[in-house]
Specification:
The complex is a heterodimer of chains A (385) and B (315). Chain A is built from 13 helices and 15 strands. Chain A is α/β, with parallel strands linked by helices. Chain A has two domains: 195 residues, Rossmann fold, CATH 3.40.50; 128 residues, Response regulator (Rossmann fold), CATH 3.40.50. In chain A, the strands form three sheets. A seven-stranded mixed sheet of chain A has the order 7-6-8-9-10-14-15, sandwiched between helices. In chain A, strands 2-1-3-4-5 form a five-stranded parallel sheet, sandwiched between helices. In chain A, strands 11-12-13 form a three-stranded antiparallel sheet, with helices on one face. With 315 residues, chain B is mainly α. Chain B has one domain. Helices cover 72% and strands 1% of the residues of chain B. A two-stranded antiparallel sheet of chain B has the order 1-2. Classes of the chains: A alpha/beta (385), B mainly alpha (315). Chains A and B meet through helix 1, helix 3, helix 4 and helix 7 of A and helix 1, helix 2, helix 5, helix 6 and helix 9 of B.
């Protein structure tokens, strides 16, 4: 009997689900031809990477507000539709499908994490909707197809920049690497750091690994201490980096730690405290930059949210601005035309440095190196590509 | 009741899926995606129901089996370039089947050493298994490691998702209702008594794991070719818990209840997402996962026997 019921029920369930889709369709298709340009955004507003997602979203929202206050784009206001993916795998594709199919957005902005951008990218590519990732640094993201762009630099560049910085500016002869095997970002940075450092005549004398979420790094740090490097490259995220710094100093390791933009969070100093003094990391943007564009952005951001913007906010802002610029130059919101305009972007004056989109749809732009001093992030230097 | 009737129903369901599949391109992409998610959840929940519900073994590793199937199928189809319609579907079926088999082998591997374990202990072992799969995938560069694996082909369609869901329901219902299948229920109700009656409890437990894992593997393959991107973090402990919740909410060993629960739990977050688009309900968008969790707590408190168990099961 159960078998029979199962089948009947199954047919009924399909009927119901079809009804649902049937009801939804008119709502979706009537959305075109309005006085607003719909732009979709998918972001990790909740979950493990929420600090990044929230920052990025605030930046994007600020850009849209400013554009609308100045009359919008092509005489129309921009409507930003934001969907949360809870920092979870499998959610981004649903969110982006909703944005494209139900909301009929003309372009998609997102994500911070590369793995979630990679999930959304094929869908945007198939639907010929331009997608701009604000801060996914993994090279694979834009390799998905010719509709996928980014406004940040990619992992190889950041790894190479830190290798040059360590070797040339800090005059290190040897370095140790402590990377997070769970994160592709960390593994990628470590790989390109190693290549760059070796190419410059340095030696890597210890390579240790941890897994994101670990709390105890004493085993790895003890091994690194025994090798006695001139510096330790830690291309991880802020939670673990803070703990690593604390435990390294407790073990009596005094050489500087340095890493990539995964360090970028106010929580870093809350966790690591004084242990992080004098350490360096590379990032996209510094609010201390004296250029006019940066100072305007910082001022407006503070007025709106009452806090100082970080790199994710700047990149979120840039992703929306570069899209608006492309739409203006294309004179249309049509996917193919916007794509062509985006691909032709040259020397766009963005908050995070001048952006030129290269042949692989990656942003060619400078990196900023910051040092942690008295619990704050101090601007050290800008390294051009 | 009889087998022939059920077979007719299965064929009817398959034909219906095929017809709907022909018109699937008219369905809004977002809703089609939700339908696929529902179908995949049904396969996973129903197959887990065989292990957790009918056989009474508490497994927390279902996402692990799903990962094995998904990655296997994806690795196979990634070997092929663009194919015509027939070849694509042919390759897809083979890949799905291979994914199912790989997962079944994994099910066998978990099943055999855990024979002597019961209840909580088994739950811990299966939990460990699920985590091992995830960590292994994270460290195998061939399948992309932590970055994840891009799946070239989006071959999942309405027919395959719901056709295979119908097959899963049919096979598991037929299995449990067969003479052989009564053994599963006997193992659940009283293992010692079942053994005394001459039932090989070990064999039943292992076969429940193998069959359950097989269908989870198939669901993994469908998931891979629907999302077109796999990351190890998508097959974590929380994902397994979601399927366990579907089974418990539907009522352990209650096929229809479990199917309804799978549909409900898949639609609920999306329904809340839709509600947040309505004026004055924007706050739902920010709190939808909290509402979702609260609803789960309320449901469990008010219907601990399962949402859709209205009468006491008669054995």
């Amino acid at each position: 009997m159960k078998t029979l019921h199962g089948q009947f029920f199954f047919a009924a369930a399909m009927g119901v689900s079809l009804l649902l889709t049937g009801c939804n369709k008119p709502a979706g298709s009537s959305a075109g031809g309005e006085d607003t340009i719909k732009v979709g955004e998918f972001a990790s507003l909740t979950g493990s990477e929420a600090t990044f997602g929230q920052s990025s979203h605030k930046g994007t929202q600020l850009a849209i507000d400013e554009l609308n206050a100045n009359g919008g784009v092509l005489g129309k206001k921009i409507q930003l539709i934001t969907e949360d993916n809870q920092s979870q795998a499998g959610q981004s594709s649903t969110a982006v499908r909703k944005l494209i199919s139900s909301d009929n957005v003309v372009a998609v902005l997102g994500e911070v994490a590369s793995s979630r951008s990679l999930e959304a990218a094929p869908i945007c590519q198939q639907n010929k909707i331009p997608m701009i990732s604000p801060s996914s640094t993994n090279p694979k993201v834009t390799e998905v197809g010719d509709y996928i762009f980014r406004v940040c630099f990619i992992d190889p560049f950041q790894g190479t920049v830190m290798a040059n910085f360590g070797r040339k500016t800090l005059k290190m002869n040897s370095a140790a690497i402590l990377s997070d095997v769970k994160s592709d970002y960390s593994v990628g940075l470590a790989k390109f750091f190693k290549e760059g450092f070796l190419a410059n005549g340095g030696t890597i004398i210890a390579e240790q690994k941890y897994s994101g979420g670990d709390k105890d790094f004493n085993a790895q740090l003890t091994a690194i201490k025994a090798a006695n490097p001139d510096g330790i490259f830690v291309p991880g995220y802020y939670t673990e980096v803070g703990l690593i710094a604390l435990q390294a100093r407790q073990l009596g390791i005094t050489v500087p730690l340095f890493g990539g933009d995964g360090w970028e969070s106010a929580s870093l100093v809350q966790i690591g405290g004084a242990a992080l003094e004098g350490d360096y990391y590379s990032t996209h943007f510094s609010p201390e930059d004296t250029s006019l564009a940066v100072q305007f952005f910082v001022k407006h951001f503070k007025e709106k949210y009452g806090e100082t913007p970080d790199a994710m906010a700047a990149l979120g802002y840039d992703s929306a601005m570069i899209l608006a610029d492309a739409m203006k130059r294309a004179g249309a919101t049509d996917g193919a035309k916007v794509r062509d305009a985006l691909a032709a972007t040259k020397g766009f004056h963005a908050v995070s440095g001048n952006i030129t989109i290269d042949a692989n749809r990656n942003a060619s732009k400078p990196a900023v190196i910051l040092q942690i001093k008295d619990g704050a992030f101090k601007y050290v230097e800008t390294i051009a590509p | 009741m009889n087998v022939r009737h059920a077979k007719t129903c299965l064929l009817g369901a398959l034909a219906l899926c095929l017809v709907i599949s022909c018109f699937a391109d008219r369905i809004n992409g977002y809703w089609l995606n939700n339908l696929y998610d529902i179908g995949i959840s049904i396969i996973l929940a129903v197959s887990l129901n065989l292990i957790n519900g009918y056989t009474g073994q508490f497994s927390l590793g279902h996402a692990g089996f799903m990962a094995v199937g998904g990655y296997t199928a994806a690795v196979i189809t990634n070997e092929f370039g663009a194919l015509n319609f027939l070849a694509a579907n042919g390759v897809f079926v083979v890949a799905l089947f291979a994914g199912g088999l790989a997962a079944a082998v994994a099910g066998l591997l978990v099943g055999i050493p855990t024979l002597r374990l019961r209840g909580d202990y088994l739950a811990i072992v299966t939990l460990g298994f699920g985590e091992i799969i995830r960590v292994v995938l994270q460290n195998v560069q061939y399948v992309g490691g932590a970055r994840g694996l891009s799946v070239q082909h989006g071959w999942t369609n309405f027919f395959w998702v719901f056709g295979l869901a119908a097959v899963t329901i049919y096979v598991i219902a037929a299995l449990v209702n067969s003479t052989y299948g009564r053994g599963f229920i006997a193992v659940r109700d009283d293992e010692v008594a079942a053994e005394a009656m001459g039932i090989n409890t070990t064999k039943y437990k292992v076969s429940a794991f193998v069959v359950g894992a097989f269908f989870a593997g198939i669901a993994g393959g469908l998931y891979a070719h629907s999302k077109q991107f796999l990351t190890p973090s998508g097959f974590g402990f929380m994902q397994s818990i979601t399927f366990v919740v579907m089974v418990i909410l539907g009522g352990m060993g209650n096929m229809i209840g479990v199917i309804i629960a799978a549909i409900l739990l898949t639609l609920l977050p999306e329904g809340l997402r839709m509600l947040s688009g309505v004026n004055h309900l924007g706050w739902i968008g920010e709190t939808r996962m909290i509402i979702y969790s609260l609803l789960l707590i309320v449901l469990m408190l008010t219907r601990p026997q399962g949402l859709f168990s209205f009468k006491k099961r008669s054995h």
